[in-house]
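Lab notebook, design round three. We kept the backbone fixed and only want residue identities now. Task for the bench partner: fill in a sequence for the structure below.
Input structure tokens:
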């Protein structure tokens, strides 16, 4: 389809080259003679005539319509007149019959814009381009994110800090939007960036930073005291955007960055074993994004950040503790209550108060300065996070409580209680009875406190291979495994310096009948005695000679 400019050019060319008349040109180009005369008069097509909305039917109601539109200047945003409502009021209040909805809609669209412009309040939001100085400003935001964890698909939150000058950003995932996550995200971002913005960082009015919004022209806020302490420690100021959607554009950089990063690096839904593993992946993605170029910029993000990084304020030498400090009391189930969740501690602390560092992803329990328990923080209200190791001393004299223990169920679910433990427990109960067999298992579980889990499992496997069901046998085999892992060996199958073939550690154990203590035959010899050595300690007094009565003397 030809544009009107091209049509006019062809008409003017045919008239100039062939000298055709107006009638001939109109017939050739299938247009009206009026269009031919317009083309011959000017190469530019005439502007389309503006439609006159004030038809004779709407003229009597123009004053009423304008009054309704002016009343919207002071009305709430969601209670302003729509075209349908204006038409209804005209029918009810002014008996406007036969008025076309399309005519009214066109008039309202044009007149509303004019009335708001006269009042100095344009309907369309106007944005003013900004130039950011290096190392001056940053922006922070949280975005929702779904992650496939071993427990299932879980809703998490993506923390993003974005530097306005270079576009360099840092992303971390947390299970909640708590203040602990908020502070840990800042610490991770400042550490990754190697400094702190010198002017301010922009935020929403989130509860982790703002306790109350004081409406006014000076953006006054009542800040959280711990947040003020954090800002004072790192020496930066906070800039808080307008509440609601009206302030979203004030930190549009981080809003767009969060969406871009999520679309490019978190699609499809990431499947990981833990959030710590996911955060390692995000840190690599942040560094890989240094090679990208933001639209309209000549340099890459990495090149811009190289200019900005030396100008950031240096990090303080002291480390800020982001965790919230609590002092709960241990109940009779060896649990503490932290943010509507229960966590286990060693049973010997029942009835005592302990100190807790509540962080974004973990709960650290201390007795004085000694760490007595560490748990992954749960985001599910009312959850119980129990460690089987904390109940072993109690289960030693209450072995019947182990089969139904909640801590055992959780240990099985997380893989800490392996199939090797299950097999040893079954064999021990069969050989020694339920109570004694369970105590043997508990002695094995106690080995985990000072030996690596992989060595204990190897010891269980070796003991089961020869039919042993004693914890002492597992301990001996686990220590052999531990010593064997630390001793260097020659390559298997090659000759050593003496010309002898080197076999693997496993081959040596299987070929040596004394390698497995449980494989030895039972020893029926009596236990040795040291009573004879007591004679060496003191000289025994000899008894006097007996009297010889027959001879009348003493022998």
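Proposed sequence:
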């Amino acid at each position: 389809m030809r544009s009107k400019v091209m049509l006019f050019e062809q008409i003017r060319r045919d008239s100039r080259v062939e000298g055709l008349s107006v009638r001939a040109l109109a017939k050739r180009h299938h247009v009206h003679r009026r269009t031919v005369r317009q083309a011959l008069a000017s190469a530019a097509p005439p502007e389309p005539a503006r439609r006159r909305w004030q038809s004779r039917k709407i003229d009597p109601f123009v004053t009423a319509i304008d009054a309704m539109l002016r009343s919207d200047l002071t009305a709430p945003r969601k209670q302003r007149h729509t075209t349908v409502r204006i038409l209804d009021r005209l029918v009810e209040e002014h008996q406007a019959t036969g008025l076309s909805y399309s005519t009214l809609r066109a008039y309202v669209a044009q007149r509303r814009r004019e009335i708001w412009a006269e009042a100095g309040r344009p309907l369309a939001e106007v944005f003013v381009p900004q130039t950011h100085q290096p190392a001056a400003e940053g922006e922070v935001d949280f975005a929702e994110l779904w992650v496939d964890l071993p427990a299932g698909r879980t809703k998490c939150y993506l923390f993003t800090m974005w530097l306005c000058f270079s576009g360099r950003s840092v992303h971390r995932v947390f299970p909640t939007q708590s203040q602990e996550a908020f502070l840990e995200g800042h610490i991770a971002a400042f550490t990754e960036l190697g400094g702190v913005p010198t002017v301010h960082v922009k935020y929403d009015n989130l509860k982790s930073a703002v306790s109350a919004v004081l409406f006014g022209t000076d953006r006054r806020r009542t800040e959280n005291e711990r947040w003020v302490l954090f800002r004072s420690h790192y020496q930066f100021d906070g800039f808080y955007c307008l509440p609601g959607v009206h302030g979203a554009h004030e930190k549009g950089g981080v809003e767009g960055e969060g969406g871009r990063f999520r679309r490019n690096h978190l699609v499809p839904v990431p499947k990981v074993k833990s959030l710590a593993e996911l955060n390692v992946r995000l840190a690599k993605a942040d560094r890989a994004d240094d090679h990208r170029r933001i639209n309209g910029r000549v340099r890459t993000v990495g090149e811009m950040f190289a200019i900005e990084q030396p100008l950031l304020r240096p990090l303080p030498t002291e480390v800020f503790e982001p965790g919230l400090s609590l002092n709960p009391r241990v109940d009779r189930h060896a649990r503490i209550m932290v943010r509507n969740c229960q966590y286990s501690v060693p049973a010997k602390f029942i009835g005592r108060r302990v100190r807790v560092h509540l962080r974004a992803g973990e709960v650290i329990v201390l007795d004085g300065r000694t760490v007595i328990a560490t748990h992954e923080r749960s985001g599910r209200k009312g959850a119980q996070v129990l460690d089987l190791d904390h109940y072993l001393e109690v289960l030693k004299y209450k072995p019947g409580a182990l089969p139904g223990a909640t801590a055992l169920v959780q240990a099985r679910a997380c893989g800490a209680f392996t199939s090797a433990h299950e097999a040893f427990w079954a064999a021990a109960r069969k050989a020694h009875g339920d109570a004694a067999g369970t105590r043997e298992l508990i002695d094995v579980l106690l080995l985990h406190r000072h030996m690596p889990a992989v060595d204990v499992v190897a010891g269980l496997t070796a003991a089961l291979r020869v039919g042993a069901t004693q914890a002492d046998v597992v301990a001996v085999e686990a220590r052999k495994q531990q010593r064997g892992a630390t001793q260097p060996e020659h390559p298997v199958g090659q000759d050593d310096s003496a010309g002898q073939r080197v076999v693997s550690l496993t081959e040596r154990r299987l070929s040596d009948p004394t390698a497995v203590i449980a494989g030895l035959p039972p020893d029926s010899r009596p236990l040795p005695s040291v009573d004879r050595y007591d004679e060496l300690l003191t000289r025994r007094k000899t008894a006097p000679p007996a009297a010889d009565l027959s001879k009348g003397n003493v022998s």
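Keep this in mind before ordering anything: The chain is about 40% helix and 15% strand.
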